[in-house]
Amino acid sequence: MNYILDGEIDVGGVKTDARARKYASDNRVSYEEGLRAIVRAQSQQQRQYAAENPGLGMAIQRLGATVAGLPKQSDGSVDIDLALEVINNSEALRELAKEAAGQHLDHLAQHLLGKAHPHEGITYADTLRVVSRDNPAVASMYNGGKATADGLKSILWTIFRYQKQTERTTVRRYSTTGSHISYDANGNEFRTYTLDAVRR
How far, in Å, CA of 139 to CA of 142, rounded? Predict the structure, then answer.
């Protein structure tokens, strides 16, 4: 299990385990009580840090709110060209986009680090290098480059994921070509259909 210790991820809980054992020994309590005390103290530390630094770590949310608040296209979707123009022509918004890009890369790197096994010796720097390589548009924004459509869509994927498609399907009918009845390995019948669509 992974823990957060002193503001950093503790992969596999190795450092947390050592600290819990020391706490248990120093205070003559069980290991479980020591672990609970360490985890509770770390949670309090994180809450205090968040309270003392309001808005820290919220760049993605602030950037998302900015983009979502811009005038939409006629179909209700985000006007990506307008969003890029607004962001790239404002020093403050470019800095916000840079911060959001950094947070996005950090989230990806932390997630990847969390999947690593302690014996592999993988560090946060390793995972950050990998996610930066695999997300060049976001890495470019983080390194001071202009906001791009690919970068913005990666960072604000929740806004763009369910965006309405401009192409609408008006008529669907089952294709009459080919057999649509098949059988699986157990002899169960299942039907598949090919959909022909007329688009406008």
Answer: 5
DSSP labels, 114-174: HHS-GGG---HHHHHHHHHHH-HHHHHHHTTPPP-HHHHHHHTHHHHHTPPPSS-EEEEEE
Range of the domain at 195: 169-199
Radius of gyration of the chain (CA): 25
Mention every residue, 6+ apart, whose C-beta is less than 8 A from residue 8.
124
* Secondary structure element (H or E) that encloses residue 45, with its range: helix 31-52
Two structure tokens written together for 48 = 């205090």
Residue after which a domain boundary falls, among 54, 73, 97: 54
Cα within 13 Å of Cα(166), Cβ side: 5
Give the tens place of pLDDT for each residue, 118-176.
777 788 888 888 999 999 999 999 999 999 999 999 998 888 775 544 433 333 333 44
155 and 173 in one domain?
A: no
Are 186 and 160 in a shared domain? Answer: no
| pTM, 2 dp | 0.57
